[in-house]
């Protein structure tokens, strides 16, 4: 954790009672803002909290999918906690979403994505990571609009899983939706990061503070 950081949950003190999306205020248990190391080089971005994350108020925990990601974080040295921890001890990574409030029956609408975008934008500006991991197709398309020159519809999370996409200011490491991943898919993603990211100098020249 960054030396100046008090805790992992919502470290930028974003509004935990946000009412910008009226339909989601009625269905959510928590507003699940970002969680992790504010000095992270790797930021993971999902579409929206699942039931486990909504209940815990922490991204990517409390469900089979969450445990899959937490296990991958452990394999990469980003987590020092067991995969079923609901408040994982993370380093060099930050977990967040396109939208932070859950509807149990549907994906977020375009308007809800637009309402919530300033939170993600602020997190990315403040963290200034080297690598962004879009988890799933919707996150991949949303981040491709911002950070690559390719047409968002040209991206396919299944085809781009476990690859590196060069972008403007950041590199993207796309990942298939956690619930669609087999163990072999998860292993391939971890192997890609280990061999092709950790194995080279991935830090770009953007005036980072030393860690
Ligand atoms: S999804 Fe985002 S913008 Fe909408 S109510 Fe939740 S925190 Fe606010």
UniProtKB/TrEMBL annotation:
It comes from Halobium palmae. The keyword Transferase does not apply. GO terms for biological process: DNA repair. The keyword Zinc does not apply. Pfam families: UDG (PF03167). Keywords: 4Fe-4S, DNA damage, DNA repair, Hydrolase, Iron, Iron-sulfur, Metal-binding. Residues 33-166 form the Uracil-DNA glycosylase-like domain. This is Uracil-DNA glycosylase family protein. One of its GO terms (molecular function) is metal ion binding. InterPro entries: UDG_Type-4/5, Uracil-DNA_glycosylase-like, Uracil-DNA_glycosylase-like_sf. It comes from the Archaea. SUPFAM superfamilies: Uracil-DNA glycosylase-like (SSF52141). Gene3D superfamilies: Uracil-DNA glycosylase-like domain.
